[in-house]
Amino acid sequence: MALTREQMAQRAALEIKDGYYVNLGIGIPTLVANYIPQGIDVMLQSENGLLGMGAFPTAAQIDADMINAGKQTVTARTGASIFSSAESFSMIRGGHIDLTILGAFEVDVEGNIASWMIPGKLVKGMGGAMDLVAGAENIIVLMTHFSRDGESKLLRKCSLPLTGTGCARRILTDLAYLEVRNGAFVLLERAPGISVEEIVAKTSGPLVISEQLREMSFCA
Amino acid sequence: MAGFDKCVQSFEAALEGLSDGMTVLAGGFGLCGIPENLIDEIHRKGIKGLTVVSNNCGIDGFGLGRLLEGRQIEKMIASYVGENALFERQLLNGELDVELVPQGTLAEKIRAGGAGIPAFYTATGVGTPIAQGKEERVFGDRRYILEQSIRGDFAIVKGWKADWYGNVVYRHTAQNFNPLVATAGRVTVVEVEEIVAPGELEPTAIHTPGIYVDRLIQGVCEKRIEKITVRGS
Measured between alpha carbons, how far is B179 from B71 in angstroms, rounded to an integer? Predict the structure, then answer.
């Protein structure tokens, strides 16, 4: 079985280390916040100007002036700070974020990412994604392996307008965990119950199967 | 004393001089920290042909979305269309001239505009459609593109509290683009929830010093929330 959105978030959360400043994109990446391993301290950055995003508010705590980049109502945790959009992107562009986890429409074997528009069909806008991928050393792309139209999202070359070039190093999908190395996707982990053959069939770009290939686990 | 009194008595007076074809910079992120009453006044006045610079364009029927409905915006400079159906439709139909700018680049363009810096290099957008037609230069081993700064004829800002000198503080994440926008308007108009007596705001806590502010007005905002999320949901 392909991973659920929650399982994808759970696996991605294992990449978060104690003391990390982390930016989580909109969609599945947002769910990662629910699975941060016990016993580590992490500051979540929200690019609208909040470092130290806390839990969702109780009904009594809802405050229109307290939102995250997904426009959801949130709280600030102890140790949080709030600042302008320029300050927020100084952190991002300046390389101060330890880990960025974001979604995408397509990724290719050069590490290129496309995530902000489908010409003639859909325009979401890039929001902060172009700044995030340009500023971060450490990026995980978290997305489904297949599009809703049944097309592979792991390609030899992205077909959609790019968000950034040469920036994706790690990709976690509902089928597999892969790295981008030397012009290929390297398959490192497969989701429980998913065969290598299925991953090969559903990956459009060149795929190398690691000798260390193992089944994905969800505990640190 | 009156030389520093930025207060005006009506929203009409707050936007005096705003006319067709001007460029308006607006603070806010989604519906958070938007100058609701100033936007509504632009809607009421029926000013057309505007270039609007704002991270988002409100939602259908609220905030800057109202100016889209009234076909008052000729060009929109923003980073995110998101769930605004009318914005997306006008963009895809080509009815609206839209320049999508990465959010951090947009913030820096406005900050630089207010700070008297005409352009800056950034790695954001290199190798993407955003880089087309822009000067590219290598510093160290990285490629960067030249982005030009932005200034506006009017800047409309939403603050929390201000004194009549125009010193402004913002509340929580309603800060967002507001302090940047406040620096980059030829005329900067700030709408706040409360005008307080001079001396009440701590000088060290001021986000926007009064030097940037031309007009100040108190207004009641609806503060609509786009996505209410609560614990356990």
Answer: 28
- Whether A161 and chain B come into contact, CB under 8 Å, resolves to yes
The values of phi and psi at residue B2, to 5°, are: -60, -20
Does residue B52 contact residue B18 with C-beta atoms inside 8 Å? no
Report the greatest alpha carbon distance in chain B.
55
Task: Give the ipTM.
Answer: 0.96
- Establish if A84 touches chain B: CB-CB under 8 angstroms: yes
Terminal Cα-to-Cα distance of chain B (whole angstroms) = 53
R_g of chain A computed on alpha carbons: 17
Contact between B127 and A111 under an 8 Å Cβ cutoff? The reply is no
Number of Cβ pairs < 8 A linking chain A and chain B: 179
Q: What share of chain B is helix, strand, coil (3-state, %, to 5)?
A: 25, 30, 45
Give the residue from chain A lying closest to B59, CA to CA.
A71
- Give yes or no for a contact between B167 and B200, defined as CB atoms under 8 angstroms apart: no
DSSP 8-state class, residue A44: E
Q: Tell me, what amino acid is at A114?
A: A
Name the strands in the sheet holding B119-122, side by side, starting at the edge strand that comes first in the sequence: B119-122, B142-148, B136-139
pLDDT tens per residue across all 220 residues of chain A? 899 999 999 999 999 999 999 999 988 999 999 999 999 999 999 999 999 999 999 999 999 999 999 999 999 999 999 999 999 999 999 999 999 999 999 999 999 999 999 988 888 899 999 999 999 889 999 999 999 989 999 999 999 999 999 999 999 999 999 999 999 999 999 999 999 999 999 999 999 999 999 999 987 5
The strand pairing partners of A190, in sequence order, are: A176, A215
- For residue B172, give how far its alpha carbon lies from the nearest alpha carbon of chain A (Å): 6
Report CB contact under 8 Å: A72, B80.
no
pTM score of the predicted model: 0.96
Nearest CA to CA, how far is A203 from chain B (Å)?
24
| CB contact B167 to A (< 8 Å) | no
- Those residues whose C-beta lies under 8 Å from the C-beta of residue A2, and which sit 6 or more positions away, are A144, A145, A174, A175, A191, A194
